[in-house]
Amino acid sequence: MKQYEHPLVEAFDLTAVLHALSDPYRLSVVQKLAEAQPQPCGPLQAGRPKSSVSHHFMVLRRAGVVRTEVVGALHMNSLRDTELEQRFPGLLSAVLKAAQSEQECRAG
Amino acid sequence: MKQYEHPLVEAFDLTAVLHALSDPYRLSVVQKLAEAQPQPCGPLQAGRPKSSVSHHFMVLRRAGVVRTEVVGALHMNSLRDTELEQRFPGLLSAVLKAAQSEQECRAG
């Protein structure tokens, strides 16, 4: 059974986390997981080809932003929000607030 | 006399800001400016070739992170921290705190 590798919280790298969050699709995945988690990849795919989605999830996993666990036939994704908060306090919540306020600006 | 272009605060894009901060050299420039500003490019160059430094400052300016103003023969750089705080509250300070804590982890 496929298992994914995830960095330890001590190995989180700030610029890798910022890079993972700096792509609009990856940021949208993080926002969706912040609203409801865990989620399988399917509803997060947003019409993208599977190879592109796999790549983006790999970037999120390697940075320590997302954890993917195999549960039966599903690959369930969740944010590593507690560990990110432990390592970089306030960072993820500031990014999520900024993303929401940006969307409200654009919608408004 | 050369003038640099800077986006209006309303045009700041979150993923562009995160991308600008996701490079170790650019993040180090932001940290140095957070300690003392404005500063000319020279002391921020850190032994890099001028073309590389120019590119990185362009990325920082286009994202709205840094403002460069021509003062006589000097190109003086400062953080747009007030405008970033206005647009994305808490983001820059969370990134600066995270960068500092990461450096302390590595040093300790």
TrEMBL record, chains A, B:
Annotated Pfam families: HTH_20
Domain HTH arsR-type, chain residue ranges per copy: 16-93
Molecular-function GO terms, alphabetical: DNA-binding transcription factor activity
Annotated CDD domains: HTH_ARSR
InterPro entries in the record: ArsR-like_HTH, HTH_ArsR_DNA-bd_dom, WH-like_DNA-bd_sf, WH_DNA-bd_sf
Name of the protein in its database record: Transcriptional regulator
